[in-house]
């Protein structure tokens, strides 16, 4: 099995893990599944590094492990401990069947769209590239379809993972500084969102967006 085949296979596994993140009903389960997905992303970066002979991607994979597998899930688990019992049921707007159907539709659309891409860097990894683009829409779907503001943070994380993989596939020789910038933005964005959720929960005692639609003086 070639290194490019591993990249595409791991891309398929990313879809499975992202779907599990969307369907998970508690913060703890979602955080653990997100860490698992991020570990798959790290393996994808390592496989791509071997395939393209890119030393930069090895550094990307190391920094992605620290930020996405350790730091971000750690912050989300910290949020889970602070929320206590209210982190055990995140609720949902869409049923699991509807969520899976919508994700499958998004993946098919991205596979159709990517067929028109004719770039040398994407020639061997079109399936993985289509999946990485689908991740952006899966994250967006999670944000729009979930009524719990904590689950919307996971939607952002899925979108960020998708953009991370897309950049690695299209520009495997991009400087490490680019990866550092992406990772730093993600960490600080999640940190700010976690602090905002804690503030909102402390003030309103709810995490449901339906209860946060009205401004109260």
From TrEMBL:
<keyword id="KW-1133">Transmembrane helix</keyword>
<feature type="transmembrane region" description="Helical">
    <location>
        <begin position="57"/>
        <end position="79"/>
    </location>
</feature>
<protein>
    <submittedName>
        <fullName>Hydrogenase-4 subunit E</fullName>
    </submittedName>
</protein>
<keyword id="KW-0472">Membrane</keyword>
<dbReference type="InterPro" id="IPR039428">
    <property type="entry name" value="NUOK/Mnh_C1-like"/>
</dbReference>
<keyword id="KW-0812">Transmembrane</keyword>
<feature type="transmembrane region" description="Helical">
    <location>
        <begin position="180"/>
        <end position="201"/>
    </location>
</feature>
<feature type="transmembrane region" description="Helical">
    <location>
        <begin position="31"/>
        <end position="51"/>
    </location>
</feature>
<dbReference type="InterPro" id="IPR038730">
    <property type="entry name" value="HyfE-like"/>
</dbReference>
<dbReference type="Pfam" id="PF00420">
    <property type="entry name" value="Oxidored_q2"/>
</dbReference>
<keyword id="KW-1003">Cell membrane</keyword>
<feature type="transmembrane region" description="Helical">
    <location>
        <begin position="6"/>
        <end position="24"/>
    </location>
</feature>
<feature type="transmembrane region" description="Helical">
    <location>
        <begin position="100"/>
        <end position="122"/>
    </location>
</feature>
């Amino acid at each position: 099995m070639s290194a490019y085949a591993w990249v595409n296979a791991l891309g398929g596994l990313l879809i499975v893990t992202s779907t599990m993140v969307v369907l998970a009903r508690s913060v703890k389960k979602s955080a653990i599944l997100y860490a698992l997905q991020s570990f798959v992303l790290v393996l994808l970066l390592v496989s791509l590094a071997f395939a393209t002979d890119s030393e930069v991607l090895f550094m990307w994979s190391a920094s992605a492990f620290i930020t996405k597998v350790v730091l971000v899930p750690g912050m989300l688990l910290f949020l889970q401990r602070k929320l206590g019992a209210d982190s055990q049921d995140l609720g949902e707007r869409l049923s699991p069947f509807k969520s899976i159907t919508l994700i499958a539709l998004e993946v098919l659309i991205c596979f159709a769209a990517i067929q028109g891409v004719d770039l040398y860097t994407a020639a061997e990894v079109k399936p993985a590239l289509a999946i990485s683009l689908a991740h952006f829409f899966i994250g967006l779907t999670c944000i729009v379809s979930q009524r719990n503001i904590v689950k919307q943070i996971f939607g952002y994380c899925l979108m960020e993972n998708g953009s991370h993989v897309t950049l690695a596939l299209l520009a495997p020789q991009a400087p490490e500084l680019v990866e550092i910038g992406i990772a730093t933005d993600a960490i600080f964005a999640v940190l700010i969102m976690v602090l905002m959720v804690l503030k909102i929960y402390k003030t309103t005692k709810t995490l449901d967006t339906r209860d946060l639609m009205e401004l109260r003086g």
